[in-house]
Amino acid sequence: MAINLIKGQTIDLRKNEKGADYNLSAVTIGLGWDVRKKETGFFSKLFGNDKEEEEYDLDAIAFLLDSNGKVANPGRTIEKPNGTSVRFYGGDIVFFNAMHHPSGHIWLTGDNRTGAGDGDDEQIIVKLNDLDQKYQRIVFLVAIYQGKAKYQHFGLVENAFIRAVDKMGHEIAKFSLSGNSTYNGMCSMIFAEAYRKDNSWSFRAIGEPHSTDNFVELLKNYR
């Protein structure tokens, strides 16, 4: 049975409570959320269809950190065919414009731009057993795309969670966050981190909100 983490709690990803090994050769970090439904007009209420769910574009991001807790390779800037520039491509930051890490051992499976659907809204797969030793820590965060401009924030996000699932589909741990007033105006969230310890990997629930909707601002703390 998966461990339901509380904020600040750390577990060993390697073994379950009964001492059995988890398969860390490919771990799925799943992130999910729901958006609080908002009231609609008088007639909708009259006919019982009084709420609708707004579309939120939340983006899952991973920073791969070295032994100094820094992103050693921030990637490069490339030009897309349409003439726009993409920063941080091909480096140690996995996000919607650089979904595959150059090592091939960590990648984002897709970019969910609405938050629609049950279960994980976005997933990051990590081959923890194969990841180079120069990577000592992986920070997982979520930012609301254009959250400030759209007045969207984590105070209006419900049932947010991050979970770790091993290669065999066994859910190892889950950390849930409920939207509340303390998250009002907060457009990004550092959910959790995985880090090396005793020749294995540990997982720590963080749940640290930030006001910025741009992960580049958070990246400054790891440069």
Structural summary, described in words:
By secondary structure, the chain is mainly beta. It contains three helices and 16 strands. The chain has helices spanning 42-46, 147-150, 215-219, and strands at residues 3-5, 10-12, 27-35, 38-39, 51-52, 58-65, 76-79, 85-89, 93-94, 106-108, 122-126, 137-144, 157-165, 171-177, 188-197, 200-210. Strands 1-14-13-3-11-10 form a six-stranded mixed sheet, with no helix packed on it. A six-stranded antiparallel sheet has the order 2-16-15-12-6-9. The longest helix is centred in the first third of the chain and has 5 residues, at 42-46. The mean pLDDT is 89.
What would a concise description of this structure say?
By secondary structure, the chain is mainly beta.
User: Strand order of the main beta sheet, please?
Assistant: 1-14-13-3-11-10
Number of helices: 3
Helicity, as a percent range: under 10%
User: Radius of gyration, Cα only, in angstroms?
Assistant: 18 Å
Distance between the ends: 37 Å
What proportion strand?
35-45%
* 3D shape: globular
Question: What's the structural blueprint in terms of helices and strands?
Answer:
Blueprint: E1 3-5, E2 10-12, E3 27-35, E4 38-39, H1 42-46, E5 51-52, E6 58-65, E7 76-79, E8 85-89, E9 93-94, E10 106-108, E11 122-126, E12 137-144, H2 147-150, E13 157-165, E14 171-177, E15 188-197, E16 200-210, H3 215-219
Parallel strand pairs: 1-14
Antiparallel strand pairs: 2-16, 3-11, 3-13, 4-5, 6-9, 6-12, 7-8, 10-11, 12-15, 13-14, 15-16
